[in-house]
Amino acid sequence: MMKKYLGGLALFYSVISIGQSVYAPLNDDYYHLVDRLDIKAENSGNIFTGVKPYLRVDIADLADKLLADTTLHWSKVDKANFQYLQDDNWEWSNNKDSANSKHKFIWGLYKKKTDFYAVNKKNFRFQLNPVAYFTLGKDRYSNPPILPVTKTVYLNTRGVELRGDIDGKIGFYTLLTDNQAVFPQYTVNRITSSYALPGEGYYKPFKIGGYDFYSANGYVDFNITKHISTQFGQDKNFIGDGYRSLMLSDYSSNYLFWKIDTKVWKFEYVNIFAEMVADNLQDFTADANYPRKYMALHYLTYHFTKNFDVGLFESITFGNTDSIHNRGFDWYYLNPLIFYNAVENGLGAPDKDHVGFNFKWNFLHHFSLYGTALLDEFDLPQILAHTGWWGNKQAFQIGAKYIDVFGIKNLDGQLEFNVVPPYTYTHFSFSRYTDYSYFANYSNFDQPLADPNGANFYEGIGILRFQPIPKLTLTGKLFVTRIGLDTAGKDYGSNVMLDYDKRVSEYGNFIGQGAKTTIVFVSGTVSFQLARNMFIDLTAVIRNQSSDYKKYNNTDDVISASFRWNIAKRLQEF
Predict the structure, then answer these.
(1) For the whole model, what pTM was predicted?
(2) What's the farthest any 2 CA atoms get from each other in the chain?
(3) Which of 35, 180, 412, 557 is found 20 to 30 A from 225 (Cα to Cα)?
(4) DSSP letter string, 151-203
(5) How is residue 54 annotated by DSSP?
């Protein structure tokens, strides 16, 4: 039903559309290049960094403008990154010819440095690229007093990526991959507990201890006016300026959505209407029609100055059924200019509403300070009473980025701290017969829509990146998480899928309650770009999870080598 409604609306707008670019896929390394330019120049052009992904035309425009700005002093590596961004988005760059290959290939392949096959006609542009991701490594994991076990881990991904536009009006994008993998034990534990593969969702068993899954995302997009664009398809979105997001992250599976993006003067206003999976009901023996849920979201950003942004966020999640009747998608939430909480109250609907505030401040051409405050529920007297009322659910993020640390060119650092109280993002059930919490909680395919840790945690993140030469990048990451996990039969507030009516206590709650657990995740990666968008990655991961509950101490030591072609790293950082 949702597909029918949203698809019809999206196709209607295509009739009146004017030129449009597609989006650059979410990619941690790629987007760092753009954010780095935004901080150094203190001017992101038409890019509002609190909403991702970015349009390719905006990335190309930013690279063109900054490369032509003689007042800014760029390193040799920075200029190479400019060139890379221009070439990767050549169809929108002022320097299109720089992407032309110097050598001729058979059958007209690689006319452009970045594209296996490209067509560039007046009314039709088309780019086709093969996708491959092969990883081989070892995972040595232990759970004392059990002796350590070593197993081979691997990832085998093959696929295709295509993008283009028709008549300069309709853009399109598709990424299709077939995957088989054996994951490190800590990832297996996450899959076993949620019956969902992180970032993907559905999977099938593959041989002994392996997973077989198919990944697909694709969309069409177009401009309604010069300042309003729209996108319809299956993909992910990210709201916020941090490494994690407390509002909407790309951790869960792809989902169907319709997005309207309005950029005018100093404002960007984004509306997203999505259909998601409420509960995966994982069953490897038969097909199943998973229950659906819906989300409506809007995010307003305002450029106070060229280097200071503030954003206002609101989302609501709700099911296609309730205790009375089959509800379907509620058309009231399609109103793009209204507070969802007011609609919810007017309908008497038991839906899940979140409100948030975000800011970002770039200064001194080297620093960026950012933060988020998310309100799940807000009762000022209860907060001031300091009684540990379970409904005190206000999550916070604060972080900073430092470009060219201590004057060392292309050495960039980031620090971030996230705190999420117990029961944040959770909801309630109507009765013992209908678990409505699955429909309204902030999740998709049994995975959190915000931070991968769910709730009831403190999290500190440190990231250091160094690009000594254009083709070589060194990355180190540290995640330290203090979380209170649920124990058998007791809901302490970490699992967003659980019904908060089954909470352990009305008062006396605190962050980290339950099975007090510490997770330390350290990773180091050396990436070398062999050719355009073709990488060799050498990665080492050490992950330790220890708990006061039952006094366990689990460790994963993972070493792997990867070959990537036209695809982002698969990150499992939790």
Answers:
(1) 0.93
(2) 74
(3) 35
(4) EEEEEEEEEEEEEEEETTTEEEEEEEEEEEEE--HHHHHHHHHHTSBTTTB--
(5) P
